[in-house]
Amino acid sequence: LPVVTEKDEL
Amino acid sequence: MNFFRLLGDLSHLASILILLHKIKTTRSCRGLSFKTQALYVAVFITRYLDLTYRWVSLYNFVMKLFFIGSSCATLYLMRYKYCPTHDPSIDTFKIEYLVGPCAILALIFNYKFSVSEVLWSFSIFLESVAILPQLFMLQRTGEAETITTHYLAALGIYRAFYIPNWIYRYFTEGVVDPIAIVAGIAQTGLYLDFFYVYFTKVMQGEKFELPA
């Protein structure tokens, strides 16, 4: 599964 | 950005506004754990270091600044302005037991072995347990002011909303964030006892009191 690379959450 | 994520962020925002409102109107930080608030400062600073080198969006930027600023302001109010109203003798949870394991977990579980990624992981793990000194204090006193319980409820609901957000993102974007998901579920789990009393008592107009 692709992991979120560009973190856009807080 | 999706509906669940937005509700989560708004709940987080609301929790901080309720907290500051409580301190200002009662002119007291009675019932609040200084240790929990100090942990939140550590959480926000270690997580939002990317403010200095990465632009996500105006929303992201403003929220990050607000969370760092408001958590530092809370600490200042508790430490200086309303210091006499804080009773360290009931705020006795040992935060070393939280910070140490979170640091070790961050060194093991991270997306890249770099300073910023390890600190990010650390902040995620630490956030999941940062409420424990506050809940421990609540357990010791056995009761809380209603406004304080509203603060805790909003703070607990915030991460709970992130869970459907992650499920939604998995189906719409095909991405997962296992570190945030595991920590987020654990974080929400810590509130279950509190939620039970909050929804069965405070929401029915009763005072927040734990059974003896």
Automatic annotation (TrEMBL), chain B:
One GO cellular component, as annotated: endoplasmic reticulum membrane
Pfam families in alphabetical order: ER_lumen_recept (PF00810)
Keywords: Endoplasmic reticulum, ER-Golgi transport, Membrane, Protein transport, Receptor, Transmembrane, Transmembrane helix, Transport
Source superkingdom: Eukaryota
Subcellular location per the Swiss-Prot or TrEMBL entry: Endoplasmic reticulum membrane
Transmembrane segments: 55-77, 97-113, 119-138, 150-167, 179-199
An MF annotation (GO) of this entry: ER retention sequence binding
Biological process according to GO: protein retention in ER lumen; protein transport; vesicle-mediated transport
Keyword Transcription regulation: no
Topology relative to the membrane: Multi-pass membrane protein
Membership in a protein family: Belongs to the ERD2 family.
PANTHER family found in the cross-reference section: ER LUMEN PROTEIN RETAINING RECEPTOR
Protein name per its UniProtKB record: ER lumen protein-retaining receptor
